[in-house]
Design a protein that fits this description.
The chain has a single domain (4-294), classed as UDP-N-acetylmuramoyl-L-alanine:D-glutamate ligase (3-Layer(aba) Sandwich). The protein has ten helices and 13 strands. The chain has helices at residues 25-34, 50-61, 105-112, 127-139, 161-170, 178-188, 195-205, 244-257, 262-277, 288-291; strands at residues 4-8, 12-16, 19-23, 40-47, 66-71, 76-82, 88-92, 114-119, 147-151, 173-177, 210-214, 220-223, 228-231. A hairpin with a 5-residue loop joins strand 6 (76-82) and strand 7.
Length: 296
């Protein structure tokens, strides 16, 4: 069986007051998975423009593999401004390249060789990319060692109940944070149920292998049909939290694909995301002490 791991969806630039940085959960996820020795790919789309070529050059410099189509839409950007209280406000531009990821024969071939994929809700805001993601998931093999991870990413109202329900039916691993869980529970009509019970309901309703719940400084949980793993969040000096959640997902997936028990995978995911929080940016190189935990 092939061990290709794919991060699929938005590829964009965060345009900040001090300059621009590559953003998008799929690239963050794929980069961190690659640090554990896996063949990872970013699947997305860029425009035939300077920002698009700069993005590919950045990925090449990181030795990050990708299957990215050039389309007749501009490369995605997010304008980030600080409000009067210094809190960032995001304007995610629409009708951009990653809204229009085409489903090609090459992408279908990749899907058939993919053992794990991570996808979110943001890239499903448009019909074209949503259909491509669904076709990719359908083309992947099914089996005990296959992981289709839906990392919920609720942004600016770019989601509907229908999109979320469909994604949860397609995935077998759900990753969600505590705020997103509250939104879903209001949407689906059980807002007053205990947090862990909400997770158990989703686990059973969608026949999931695992449900990962992150609660910021209050720790994280992994629910399976037979157990619940809880790991507290380490106390660290935070530089920024950009990409921390993506690194958590990447480390967890890498560990379970290496055959590690859920609790070991969970502990590694927490350690990796904590390290990323101590660094600037979403894609720091991980220290050898973390990488070697999954060395063959």
């Amino acid at each position: 069986m092939n061990n290709i791991i794919v991060g699929m969806g938005e590829a964009l630039w965060d345009v900040l007051p001090e300059g621009k940085k590559i953003g998008g959960a799929p690239a963050n996820f794929a980069y961190h998975v690659s640090q554990f020795g896996f063949d990872s790919r970013v699947v997305s789309a860029i425009g035939d423009d300077r920002l698009g070529y700069e993005m590919l050059e950045n990925f090449d410099n990181k030795k990050l593999h990708y299957q990215i189509e050039k389309v007749s839409y501009p490369t995605g950007t997010v304008q980030v401004k600080l409000n009067s209280e210094g809190v960032p406000v995001y304007d995610i531009k629409e009708s951009v390249a990653w809204d229009n990821i085409p489903f090609t024969s090459a992408l279908e071939s990749l899907a058939k060789d993919t053992r794990s994929v991570c996808f979110g809700s943001l890239a499903q805001r448009s019909v074209v990319s949503r259909e491509t993601i669904n076709l990719f998931l359908d083309a992947m093999p099914d089996g005990e060692g296959q992981y289709k991870v839906f990392d919920v990413n609720l942004r600016q109202g770019f989601y509907t109940e229908e999109i979320l329900c469909n994604a949860m039916q397609k995935c077998n691993v759900l990753k969600i944070n505590d705020e997103e869980l509250m939104t879903l529970s209001r949407m689906f009509g059980y807002p007053d149920i205990d947090m862990q019970d909400k997770c158990r309901i989703l686990l059973a309703k969608y026949n999931l292998k695992m449900l990962i719940l992150t609660c910021g400084v209050n720790g994280s949980y992994v629910f399976t049909s037979g157990e619940v793993s809880f790991v507290p969040t380490p106390k660290i000096e935070v530089a920024d939290t950009v990409g921390a959640g993506d690194s958590f997902t990447a480390a967890f997936v890498a560990a379970v694909m290496k055959g590690k028990p859920v609790i070991e995978a969970h502990k590694l995911a927490v350690e990796v995301s904590a390290f990323v929080c101590t660094q600037n940016g979403a894609m720091p190189e991980l220290p050898a002490c973390l990488k070697k935990q999954l060395a063959n």
